[in-house]
Amino acid sequence: MINEIAYYRSPIGILEIRSADDAITHILFTNSWKGSTIDETKIDFTEPNSSIIKMCIKELNEYFSGERTTFSFPVKHEGTEFQQTVWKELTNIPYGRTISYLELSKRIGNTKAIRAVGTTNGNNSICIVVPCHRVIGSNGDLIGYGGDLWRKKWLLDHENKFANGLQTLF
């Protein structure tokens, strides 16, 4: 059950944030491959009522300004036990680092599930916070991102700049 939907203007596009109970359930870029298609000129950026969404927005501001590398608010994904395992493992990828889909499948103890890991990564509904953008191809290529590949590159460059003092990864 969705309690509230709010919108956040990030440096790389508008994010739709949804909460249920006392957890964030969705953070998706609007008008992207995975996000809602909406007329962005009609978005209401009124301050949300939900304390959890207010906390999310505060922490996203800190992330985008380079002050935050992890998030502290509760998130809630709806999914199978396998999906929950993959999404939890995504949160163990350090800020400013990347791993391959193969490495992610190794980390969950099932290299044969590499395709299912990729699908589950693509079904992540809490972008940035559950950092699916940190997973790349085994050959180092940027592949697959529901918020569009240019945003994945931006997020990786952003994190790398603050984590390692470098301008770009790719």
Would you spell out the secondary-structure blueprint of this structure?
Blueprint: E1 4-10, E2 13-20, E3 23-29, H1 51-64, H2 81-90, E4 99-100, H3 101-107, H4 114-122, E5 135-136, H5 149-164
Parallel strand pairs: 4-5
Antiparallel strand pairs: 1-2, 2-3
Helix pairs in contact: 3-4
Describe this protein's structure:
The chain contains five helices and five strands. The relative contact order is 0.16. With 170 residues, the protein is α+β, with helices and mostly antiparallel strands. Strands 1-2-3 form a three-stranded antiparallel sheet, with helices on one face. The chain has helices at 51-64, 81-90, 101-107, 114-122, 149-164, and strands spanning 4-10, 13-20, 23-29, 99-100, 135-136.
Features:
two-stranded parallel ribbon, 5 helices, 170 residues, three-stranded antiparallel beta sheet, alpha+beta, globular
Task: Kindly report the average pLDDT value.
Answer: 92
Strand order across the largest sheet: 1-2-3
The count of helical stretches stands at 5
Order of SSEs: EEEHHEHHEH
Q: What does the radius of gyration come to?
A: 16 Å
Brief characterization of the structure:
By secondary structure, the protein is of the alpha+beta class. It has helices at 51-64, 81-90, 101-107, 114-122, 149-164; strands spanning 4-10, 13-20, 23-29, 99-100, 135-136. A hairpin with a 2-residue loop joins strand 1 (4-10) and strand 2.
